[in-house]
């Protein structure tokens, strides 16, 4: 597998920055708890749909106390269009109770504590750490996974391994920015079925492009 020098990584990030200067978290939120709920809802769902749902939901309910006492069926109805609504409702209610009972009603700000919450894995925890608490983190979602494999940073379908590799080769102060840039690359150019390589700014660094292996 190709080794990427520090200069390669910097050039890749610079080129992506040129192409996606506006790369950012596309979920709307106004507190760490809202971001946590929105991220749980975003599994297997588009950010656009989550924002449609939360724009109504958060008007009335946006604290752990609101969800902890909410009947499951009621929450299911409110989040139904996000898909997997039974699991998501169960997790949001359990997560809210855990935040109240174990963390004094405040969303914790460490990986160790975040992953103790129901429905919160490393990906969600990294989104919350990076976005809500501005702690450098790389969340590996389907886009980050795909582009990391195509570019040739790693060959693995294990999100934790991909995260570890990216943390090794990217300077810590660039982790959160790299996360957004890779998501935008995957979402808007390096599509899963038909990547738009002609319009990609990092062709010259990409193993998949060189091998034409899609
Ligand atoms: S060159 Fe093609 S495969 Fe490689 S990152 Fe760009 S869009 Fe994806």
SSE arrangement:
Blueprint: H1 6-19, H2 32-41, H3 47-60, H4 64-68, H5 72-79, H6 85-103, H7 111-114, H8 122-132, H9 142-151, H10 159-169, H11 175-188, H12 207-211
Helix pairs in contact: 2-8, 5-6, 9-11
Bound molecules: iron/sulfur cluster.
The site of iron/sulfur cluster has 14 residues, from α9 and α12.
Describe this structure as you would to a colleague.
The chain has 214 residues and is mainly α. The chain folds into two domains: 6-24 and 138-211, Orthogonal Bundle (Endonuclease Iii, domain 2), CATH 1.10.1670; 32-132, Endonuclease III, domain 1, CATH 1.10.340.30. Helices cover 58% and strands 0% of the residues. It is built from twelve helices and no strands. It has helices at residues 6-19, 32-41, 47-60, 64-68, 72-79, 85-103, 111-114, 122-132, 142-151, 159-169, 175-188, 207-211. It is elongated, with a radius of gyration of 18 Å. The mean pLDDT is 96. Bound molecules: iron/sulfur cluster. The site of iron/sulfur cluster (SF4) has 14 residues, from α9 and α12.
Concise overview:
With 214 residues, the chain is mainly α.
State the fourth-level CATH superfamily of the largest domain: Hypothetical protein, domain 2
Query: Which kinds of small molecule does this entry bind, naming each only once?
Result: iron/sulfur cluster
The SSE string, one letter per element, is: HHHHHHHHHHHH
Q: What would the principal axes of the Cα set say about the shape? A: elongated
Beta-strand percentage range: under 5%
Mean pLDDT: 96
CATH architecture of the largest domain: Orthogonal Bundle
Number of domains: 2
pLDDT < 50 runs, ≥5 residues: none
Distance between the termini: 17 Å
Number of helical segments? 12
What is the number of E strands? 0
Give me the CATH fold name of the largest domain.
Endonuclease III, domain 1
What's the CATH class label of the largest domain?
Mainly Alpha
Structural category is: mainly alpha
Which bin fits the share of residues in helices?
A: 55-70%
**How big is the Rg?**
18 Å
The main sheet comes to:
none
């Amino acid at each position: 597998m190709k080794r990427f020098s520090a200069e390669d990584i910097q050039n890749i990030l610079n080129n992506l920055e040129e192409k996606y200067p506006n790369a950012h978290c596309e979920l709307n939120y106004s507190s760490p708890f809202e971001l946590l709920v929105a991220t749980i809802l975003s599994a297997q769902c588009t950010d656009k749909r989550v924002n449609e749902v939360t724009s109504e939901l958060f008007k009335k309910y946006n604290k752990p106390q609101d969800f902890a006492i909410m009947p499951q069926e009621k929450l299911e109805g409110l989040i139904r269009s996000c898909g997997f609504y039974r699991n998501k409702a169960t997790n949001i209610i359990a997560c809210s109770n855990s935040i109240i009972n174990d963390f004094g009603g405040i969303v914790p700000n460490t990986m160790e504590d975040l992953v103790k919450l129901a429905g919160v894995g490393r990906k969600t925890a990294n989104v919350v750490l990076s976005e809500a608490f501005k702690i450098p983190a790389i969340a590996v979602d389907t886009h980050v996974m795909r582009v990391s494999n195509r570019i040739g940073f790693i060959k693995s379908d294990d999100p934790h391994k991909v995260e570890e590799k990216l943390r090794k080769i990217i300077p810590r102060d660039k982790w959160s920015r790299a996360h957004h840039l890779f998501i935008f690359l995957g979402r808007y150019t390096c599509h899963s079925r038909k990547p738009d390589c002609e319009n990609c700014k990092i062709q010259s660094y990409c193993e998949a492009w060189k091998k034409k292996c899609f």
